[in-house]
Amino acid sequence: MTSVLSTVEDTRGFGAALAELLRPGDLVVLAGPLGAGKTALAQGIGAGLGVRGDVTSPTFVIARVHKPDPARGGRVPLVHVDAYRLGAVPDPRAEVDDLDLDAGVDESVTVVEWGEGLVEQLVDAYLEVRIDRRDDESRVVDLIPHGGDWAARLASLPETAGSAR
User: CA quadruple 146, 107, 115, 37: dihedral positive or negative?
Assistant: First the structure.
C-alpha cells in the first residue's frame, strides 16, 4: 500500500490515522533516509495514540516511553526507539537485546526508526513503513505487512490517510 504525502503535517496526519489500527504488542519498523519523515510519522502515531508529552527523536537516548494521557484519549503506551546509533559492534542485535525492548512489547506499541534487520525478531508479525522524500519535499510512504493480520488491518486504513493508495 503506497501513499503520497505533500507536507510534514500530512505525514503526521498519516501517522495519526495509522495509530487507529495499532494495538498493544504491535511493532512498527520505520525505514528511510535521513530527513525522510520517520520522526514526523512517529509524532503522528503518538498523537493518534493520545500519549503524554511531545514525541521527539530519541537519537541520543535511543528509546523513550510515552505513557497514555487519559485527557487526550490515550489508550496504550508508545515505545519510540531510534536505532541509528546502534550497530557499531559485530552483531548489533545484541545491542537491541540489551535495550530489553521485548520486556514491554506486549503492553505497548513499539515504533523503531532505523530498525531494519535489528528488531524484527522481537515479534512474530510487524509492519514495515518505508518513507522516501521526493525532490518536491513530498513523501512516498509504503506500508509493508509482515505476517499476522496486518494486511487486513491496513485494508481498513481510510482513503483520506494518503493521497494515493
Answer: positive
